[in-house]
Structure formats: structure tokens, C-alpha cells
């Protein structure tokens, strides 16, 4: 039965598709707004209806006869028209992933895109995300990151996948099955470099949460025979900036100065060539004086 003083409120919701983030571990990692939406929506949809029902039971939210419609990888295309029809008829539809934020390596893209195409309201109820949680605890640069999802399962495809990421100037975030973690780490050390800093974030926000930080080569060695359990996020430091040929970047700076201010030209070239912005700006200033 609902608590006599629940944390949630039943509120009138405007018609729309509400994408509700749910906890990735601890059940209390859900926002008050998400609870309000789950308590108030006319129609509930979920990647896993049992998980959503259990979450609502934990927080004392009654169904009150409302439908709970499954919408997952295998039926999203078929379930979406029914859910969008409900929105078009003026109803509020709440969609929740099994854990985390819809669309982020989870279902939701098909229905969200279809709703946008039909001009229907799409609203986000933000909350837990393994991507951001791992980025926060990994101890690696967070000013720019690239979420690449799950690597391919086969060795050859995984090598190609990692090669595409090798020069990315951003912290890399990957999801991986515990069964394939050792293979991923070995291939990552080979392709990205054994000395590149990384972190393995396991069971985030759960009782056995664990973060292991070390260079890729060391992680590959320590996990070669390890039996890993639970949800895993791998965070890898960005590539070291390539050393650019001075003639190449100064030529690019000359071209940029034809249409951009000194400041903007310097910023663009420094970013493109991985160079210190202050150094490029000083060269740009000198070049600007001669124009």
C-alpha cells in the first residue's frame, strides 16, 4: 500500500511522451519528478514491465488499473503506434528503461523519433545514467567525452571499432559484458596503447560497487583470467595530441585568418591540431599585425 506520506504526488500531466530515467542500482536514485510522472501518467510503458512494477511497489505508487505496456528491442516498432496513438488522443505516456536513461544503449529511440516526426510532445525526466556516473568517478578528464556504447562481440570487428576511436580527442566511455571484458581490455591495450589511463567501473551505485584505475596494459593483464560479474563501464583517457608539422598548422592559420578574427582563428587551429591555444594565439597575433 502507498505510504501515508509518499514522496510523490499525483499531478495532471499534459499529453506527451515522457522519457523517464530509472535507477541503475539503488532504488532511491530516482527523482521526485520521475515518481510524480509514474504516479500520474495515463499509460505506462517499459522495457521490462516487471522491473517497472517492482520499482513502483518500492516507492508505493499504485497502478490504479493503468495499463503497463512492454516496449523493448524486439517489439518497439510494433508497440510504438499504440503508444503514440494514446498521446495523439490527449493522454500522457511514461516510458521507462529497465535501468538508466532511455535511448542510451536502451530502447526508446524508435518511439521518440516517431513522436517527433508526428509533431507530438516528447519530454525528458532526467536521472540516473551509467555514462555520467562512470565519468564522475573514473578520475579522467570530463570536459569532453565520447560515448561509444557496446563494442562489437567479434575480435576483428572490435579491432576496427577501437581503431576508429584511437585518435578521438575525448575521454572514451564504453559499455561491456563482463564475459567479454578481458578481450576488450586486451584489444584496447593493443590498439589504443598499453600506457593509456583507464578505469573499470563495475556495479555502479550497487552494494558491490568497484572502480579499478590503471593503464590499459595493466588492466588487461590483471583481468586476463579474472571472473567478473555485474554491469561494467570502461572509461579510457583521450589520445595524446599528435605532433603537428609547424608548416601545416601555420598554413591553416593563414587560411583561417582570411575569414576569422585572430582569437577565433587561433582557437580553431589549436583545436584541430591539438596545440596549446596560447602559443597559436601569439603566432596569430603576429600574423594579424602584418595584414
Automatic annotation (TrEMBL):
Catalytic activity: cytidine(1402) in 16S rRNA + S-adenosyl-L-methionine = 2'-O-methylcytidine(1402) in 16S rRNA + S-adenosyl-L-homocysteine + H(+)
Start and end residues of each Tetrapyrrole methylase domain: 17-220
Enzyme class: transferase
Gene3D superfamilies (UniProt xref): Cobalt-precorrin-4 Transmethylase, Domain 1, Methyltransferase, Cobalt-precorrin-4 Transmethylase, Domain 2
Keyword terms of this UniProt record: Cytoplasm, Methyltransferase, rRNA processing, S-adenosyl-L-methionine, Transferase
Gene Ontology terms for molecular function: methyltransferase activity
Subcellular localization(s) per the UniProt record: Cytoplasm
CDD domains listed in its UniProt record: RsmI
GO biological process: methylation
UniProt superkingdom: Bacteria
RsmI HTH domain sequence ranges: 244-286
Protein EC: 2.1.1.198
SUPFAM superfamilies for the chain: Tetrapyrrole methylase
Any Pfam family: RsmI_C
PANTHER family associated with the record: RIBOSOMAL RNA SMALL SUBUNIT METHYLTRANSFERASE I
Biological role stated in the UniProt entry: Catalyzes the 2'-O-methylation of the ribose of cytidine 1402 (C1402) in 16S rRNA.
Family statement: Belongs to the methyltransferase superfamily. RsmI family.
Protein name, as recorded: Ribosomal RNA small subunit methyltransferase I
Organism: Paragemmobacter ruber
Gene expressing this chain: rsmI
Amino acid at each position: 500500500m502507498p505510504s501515508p506520506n509518499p514522496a510523490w504526488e499525483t499531478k495532471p500531466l499534459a499529453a506527451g511522451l515522457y522519457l523517464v530515467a530509472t535507477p541503475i542500482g539503488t532504488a532511491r536514485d530516482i527523482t521526485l519528478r520521475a515518481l510524480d510522472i509514474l504516479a500520474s501518467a495515463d499509460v505506462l510503458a517499459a522495457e521490462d514491465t516487471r522491473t517497472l512494477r517492482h520499482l513502483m511497489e518500492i516507492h508505493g505508487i499504485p497502478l490504479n488499473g493503468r495499463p503497463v505496456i512492454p516496449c523493448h528491442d524486439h517489439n518497439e516498432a510494433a508497440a510504438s503506434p499504440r503508444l503514440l496513438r494514446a498521446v495523439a488522443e490527449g493522454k500522457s505516456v511514461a516510458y521507462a528503461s529497465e535501468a538508466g536513461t532511455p535511448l542510451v544503449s536502451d530502447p526508446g529511440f524508435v518511439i521518440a523519433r516517431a513522436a517527433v516526426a508526428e509533431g507530438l510532445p516528447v519530454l525528458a525526466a532526467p536521472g540516473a545514467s551509467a555514462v555520467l556516473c562512470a565519468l564522475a568517478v573514473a578520475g579522467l578528464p570530463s570536459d569532453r567525452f565520447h560515448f561509444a556504447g557496446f563494442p562489437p562481440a567479434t575480435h576483428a570487428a572490435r579491432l576496427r571499432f577501437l581503431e576508429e576511436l584511437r585518435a578521438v580527442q575525448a575521454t572514451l566511455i564504453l559499455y561491456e559484458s563482463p564475459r567479454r571484458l578481458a578481450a576488450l581490455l586486451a584489444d584496447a591495450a593493443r590498439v589504443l596503447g598499453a600506457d593509456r589511463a583507464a578505469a573499470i567501473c563495475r556495479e555502479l551505485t550497487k552494494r558491490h560497487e568497484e572502480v579499478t584505475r590503471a593503464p590499459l596494459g595493466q588492466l588487461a593483464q590483471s583481468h586476463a583470467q579474472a571472473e567478473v560479474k555485474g554491469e561494467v563501464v570502461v572509461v579510457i583517457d583521450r589520445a595524446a595530441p599528435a605532433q603537428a608539422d609547424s608548416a601545416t598548422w601555420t598554413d591553416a592559420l593563414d587560411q583561417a585568418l582570411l575569414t576569422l578574427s585572430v582569437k577565433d582563428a587561433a582557437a580553431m587551429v589549436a583545436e584541430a591540431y591539438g596545440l596549446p591555444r596560447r602559443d597559436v594565439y601569439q603566432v596569430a597575433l603576429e600574423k594579424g599585425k602584418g595584414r
